[in-house]
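Hey, can you fold this?
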Amino acid sequence: ETQRLLKVTEDRAAELAIINSVQEGLASKLDMQSIYELIGEKLGEILHSHNIDIRLFDIPNDKVYYPYLMEKGNRISIDPSSFTGMSKYVYDTKQMLVVNEDIPGFMEKVGSQVLPGTEMEKSFVALPIMSSENVIGMVGISDYE
């Protein structure tokens, strides 16, 4: 029982350390781009992934913005794109999206394209970013192996 309680305490301490490091980073950076960078980096650390993107949806202007896009450990900067494909799918469903087989088929089905300067992933997970009941963006995690 003591070992179990010690493990729970250690796990909780690790979770709090991550939260504290994000909080410290947010407090030290006031501009939104720096906040996106910090969140993207922390997600990469937590998920042990070098393939993270943060997308923001501008519905009135039919655009998707990419304030953070990391592929295979390289930061990529791309122009806003049309609000279609996987982004629109996540927006419409308000649900987590997991695609771990036949990515080309799924992309064709939802009208998605490979983003300029990136490669097609072998699997993809997307989580909606919610504000109240509205989807305002998404976080994507890709795998290329």
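Oh, and this one too while you're at it.
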Amino acid sequence: MGAKVGATARSAAQAKSRAGAASAVLVGAVLAASLMFAALPQAAHAHGPVAPLASSYLARVTALPPGLHAKIVDGDQRMWLEAPPSETVTVLDYQGAPYLRFDSAGVQVNQNSAMYYLNQTPVAETPPPNLTASTPPSWQRASGGHSFSWHDGRLHALAAVALLPGKRLVGNWRVALRIDGRPSMISGGLWHAPDPSIVWFWPIVVLLACVLAARRVRRRELDRLTARGVSLATLAALGAVGIGRGLHGRPTVSVLQWIELAVMLAFVVWALRRVLFVRSGYFI
């Protein structure tokens, strides 16, 4: 009788140990995937980082020449431009020198532009002091397509301007162009972004309250359901954040970004399968 009771106790202890270890593995895997996803090196695109950057400002295009398409990427950080192959469109840098040239062959970048050095990644370089607007350009092929994005400090140069209470428009900006040799420009404005919503905070409070309440009436089945619920919520949040982080504000997505997103989603799908279809002994 005593041996039977001892065996039962050992079996229960082993089951509890395995369940606890499995739960720890799941939590560790979620955290590891999150850290791995955040730590993956960001792909370089158009001489600048592509990772979304937190900003208190939003830049918008308000006017541009006919036939061109322009968007602001990452809040107030980057300009994306698409030009028709039938026109030669030159983007001028901060000094008025040619920086980018769009034509029927694709997109070229001028290596004798100060912006070429300032937009190097991962660290900006100091432009040579002898570069001026009259320095002859040295063109290098940057893309075979007809769209390109680059970091442009003119979009957020007004961010340091103090705003009056209740005012959101900070000011207007311009990016000078030449279209088939004719002067032109893309113009827009910079707005102070509204305060972030705290709606997301309340589901977390409710979830924590449910976990605390479950501990007061702790039962094995309730523990199992709680673990599954928390796991599902965590994995769903990880998937949503990953997709949003990878695609937010992007007119185009690089191959490395697709690979990064695919790895993250593959982990989420695998973990969801474990949560939903593996026998209940896997959880507490």
